[in-house]
Write a structure and sequence with these properties.
single chain; 661 residues; mainly alpha; 18 helices; 75% helix; 0% strand; rod-shaped
């Protein structure tokens, strides 16, 4: 009977510890992990801790107790599972960190060999960095497409910094793999050690003649068991059950010795009291997740300690449970606070989804509009990345909604540019044809005709439309080179020609000055020869293409008229002697021909007016009656008629002498 009571007490203590383990396990299972990325970059947290009732009373868990240890499992992939179950109050916002700072932080962790305790930090840094690289590449691709490029032709080159960052990540995975191998070896080694402890317990139960030494050895084996780490998951349950069985078997064997049993219970009370003190100290821990994790460790230790009297057990258990409830409450508050943040983030991301949908409704019709809308889409993406985690239940569908909207935008954009690709191909053919025509004219010396033709080709170029950006500069430089070759040659030729024209104009101006200072001879034949010589010298100088030539000719004609008038005044020479000379000079230039045409027109107009006046006066003669004064008036009218006819004849003679132009 005594043995049965002792066995019951042993099971009661073990089951109480196991129930606390179950309590913590429930809390842990309701606490979701933080993933570091959304869509391999999109990460969110769902925290929902339900605080269970914690009881020291025996429940029917003895048949299937929780294992003493939890297995360590390291994933072969690059994805890193966070150790912490939720967001902490002091969690660093790596999204706002410059990339250089992320690099230095990761470098420091690896250098200090603190990988295992910083898995979530490393995961966040890795995924944020790769997300930034991906976004930068996507932005470069869109800029390339916006400029007329084809996505298939786009490529990126890693910078030295990117190479260094990726090398650092590779070092992390290499070290992490080494840690995994070491832990797997440790699991096997721990299995061997604990299996041997069980064998030693078996032997101890069978050979316990000296109870004092047996208890001492028993405590050594218990301490060794607690000090030995975790074992492979497949062996954990069986090993734990076997260990419990051997413990109970030993106590049944030595239970007749009350003194040793009491000594063991006293030691167990001290151990559990120490655990209560440690649990109570956890309320000072600011980070809730850390306190919960350490409480789990204390719970595991509690479970390993042997049985104590019922009254002592209830007191210590109540004390430990009270401390645990404080930690659970703190975790619950932290999780509620985190949940509020997650809901705010969800609202912000749903708002961005709505804005993205509005952008999709706009249908850009040209490159400028697409570029503007693309910048807006990228700005929304940047805002999305700045927003932290959302509830896990909304994580996938929220990110999928935003991502699909963004992808649809760029699909529509690709359709737009694919439609204009054929047009750009046709435009390229037109531009190449214009290049060939310009190249055929580049060496021409028919300056004016070729210049007009090249200007016409340039106008066609402007109307031909855009081509793909990777071809634009090449074909434009080809066309421009042909045009520049011709116009450079033309300008060189013009420069030489202009220098000669300026020289000729200066010579003509000197001749005009000589007319102004001409000394008039008494001999008109001499004067005529001098005038003709000056006129021939002037006409012999070619300045017809100068913009100042007409002005110079006008000045020469004016100076020539002045010289002829001076000759008339001095010698009384008949104007007709110089009239042909004047007309010859006028006929030598376009400006002079215009002068002759104007003079002929003026003389013709005068003749018409005079004829009209004479005809009117002749008609009026019939109105004069016979009166004393009629004859006098008639004579005056007749004189006017005769004078008019004489003037008409004079003008006709002058008109006949003028050359017809």
């Amino acid at each position: 009977m005594m043995n049965e009571n002792k066995k019951f007490e042993q099971e009661e203590v073990s089951e109480n510890a196991e129930q606390l383990n179950s309590t913590h396990k429930e809390v842990s299972e309701n606490t979701q992990q933080v993933n570091a990325t959304e869509n391999n970059s999109e990460n969110n947290v769902q925290l929902n801790i339900a605080q269970p009732e914690i009881s020291e009373n025996n429940t029917n868990n003895t048949e299937n107790p929780n294992p003493a240890e939890s297995i360590i499992s390291i994933n072969e992939s690059e994805e890193i599972s966070n150790e912490e179950p939720g967001l902490e109050e002091n969690e660093e916002d790596f999204f706002s960190w410059p990339t250089n700072d992320l690099f230095e932080r990761l470098q420091g962790i690896i250098k200090e060999d603190k990988i295992q305790e910083n898995l979530s930090v490393i995961n966040s840094i890795k995924d944020i960095y790769r997300s930034r690289v991906q976004n930068e590449n996507e932005q470069k691709l869109q800029e390339y497409i916006n400029s007329g490029g084809v996505a298939e032709d786009f490529s990126t080159i890693r910078s030295e910094f990117d190479e260094a960052f990726e090398d650092l990540i590779k070092k992390f995975f290499k070290k992490r793999k080494e840690i995994k191998i070491q832990k797997e070896k440790a699991l096997i080694l721990n299995l061997v050690v604990k299996t041997q402890i069980i064998e030693d317990l078996k032997h101890l139960a069978k050979t316990s003649e000296n109870l004092s030494k047996a208890f001492e050895k028993f405590h050594e084996l218990q301490a060794k068991w607690r000090a030995t780490g975790k074992v492979p998951l497949a062996d954990e349950e069986h090993l734990w059950q076997n260990y419990r069985f051997q413990n109970e078997l030993f106590f049944n064997t030595v239970s007749l010795n009350k003194e040793l049993r009491d000594l063991d219970r006293t030691k167990n009370i001290e151990l559990k009291t120490a655990l209560c003190i440690k649990a109570e100290a956890l309320k000072e821990e600011r980070i809730a997740n850390k306190a919960t994790k350490e409480l789990k460790s204390l719970q595991d230790e509690w479970k390993e300690i042997g049985f104590i009297p019922k009254d002592e057990s209830d007191v210590l258990w109540e004390r430990f449970k009270t401390a645990a409830e404080l930690i659970f409450e703190k975790q619950k508050i932290q999780n509620e606070k985190t949940k509020g943040k997650l809901e705010e983030n969800l609202k912000a991301k749903l708002l961005l989804c709505g804005q993205m949908e509005q952008l999709l409704e706009a249908k850009p019709s040209n490159h400028k509009e697409w570029k503007s809308e693309s910048e807006k889409v990228e700005e929304l993406m940047l805002q999305w990345k700045k927003i932290s985690f959302v509830p896990k239940s909304d994580n996938g569908k929220t990110w999928e909604r935003f991502k699909s909207l963004r992808n649809q935008f760029f699909k529509d954009k690709d359709v737009f540019y694919s439609q204009i690709k054929d047009t750009q191909t046709e435009n390229l053919k037109i531009k190449i044809n214009l290049c060939e025509k310009a190249e055929a004219l580049k060496d021409s010396t028919d300056w004016d005709t070729t210049a007009n033709e090249l200007k016409r080709l340039q106008n066609e170029w402007k109307k031909s439309g855009p081509v793909a950006v990777r071809q634009s500069d090449k074909v434009w430089n080809r066309f421009r080179k042909a045009c520049d070759t011709f116009f450079d040659n033309k300008n060189k030729e013009k420069a030489t020609e202009n220098a000669q024209l300026n020289e000729n104009l200066n010579k003509r101006k000197e001749i005009i000055n000589s007319l102004s200072t001409l000394e008039i001879s008494e001999d008109n034949e001499t004067n005529m020869e001098v005038i003709k010589s000056i006129q021939n010298d002037f006409n012999a100088i070619d300045a017809s293409t100068s913009r100042d030539n007409e002005i110079v000719i006008k000045n020469f004609n004016k100076a020539l008229d002045n010289a002829i008038n001076r000759i008339k005044e001095k010698t009384g020479a008949n104007q007709s002697e110089f009239i042909n000379l004047r007309y010859e000079n006028l006929l030598s230039s376009e400006e002079g021909k215009i002068t002759i045409r104007k003079e002929r027109s003026n003389i013709s107009d005068k003749i018409k007016h005079l004829l009209t006046d004479v005809m009117q006066m002749e008609n009026n003669l019939s109105f004069f009656g016979k009166s004393k004064n009629a004859s006098t008036l008639l004579a005056d009218f007749q004189k006017k008629i005769d004078d008019g006819k004489a003037e008409i004849q004079k003008l006709k003679d002058e008109l006949n002498r003028m050359p017809k132009v």
